[in-house]
Here is the input.
Amino acid sequence: MAKIEGSRVLITGASSGIGRATAFELAKRGAILAVTARRSKTLRKVSDEIKDAFPEAQAPLSIPSDVSDREDVTRLVKRCVGYLGGIDILINNAGIGVYGNAEMTTLEDFRSVMEVNFFGSVNCILEVLPCMKEIGKGLIINIASVAAMHGIPYMGAYSASKAALVALSQSLRAELAKSGISMMIVYPGYTQTDFFKNEKKVDGARRPAGPYAPARKVARSIIKAIESERPDLVLSLGGKALKFSQSLMPRLVERTMQRIAYKLADKKEA
Here is the structure.
């Protein structure tokens, strides 16, 4: 069983949602944290709340940054290593979305989603890997999505970015197999976060009604996966059903996605 207490952890996208909840759960178990996000005031508030909740623990290092900016990530990791003394666990959680009809989504929006969700994780991985290789161990956790298993209607850019992240994770898992560095892929379903509130909405569809899992529940599942050293974590019944059905009943999955697309379509735009 992997030990969390004393582990040095860098979490991106830590100002809200899954990132924030995971930071609290890790601090509760004695991890030494560095948290980052673009929203500096919100990030500072999270850091202060963790400090107040766990006064006996080392205060989290709070560093605002944009993971899509490689130079920013270089500075981020350098400060983390200086403060923490190294990085044992990297959690790539930062993410954005664009919701709506793919043909109404601009190329700029597609690129923006890829820059944060995929290249942002790439930037962090490339900067952290040398630190982990130096100590001969490490864990990289990439927060993907059920949407990475099969593209979700009206979430084309987001689905594509998360599918790319999964493919990279699988490649790295094989390449790093003998290095002492492990890869974990997490596939959350719909979660109670600010994601849908903050994502850009384009014309063509209504947002799904849910159900939405509490971020704390997702975070606790991630903690259990770290402790049990699981390589993949699929969350939500829908996600598990999709994983099972996709290999055995691919046509059923396609028909289901078509029904979802029809149900969510804005009939005024259709």
Remarks:
- The chain is about 50% helix and 15% strand.
- The longest strand covers residues 181-187.
- The mean pLDDT is 88.
- The radius of gyration is 18 Å.
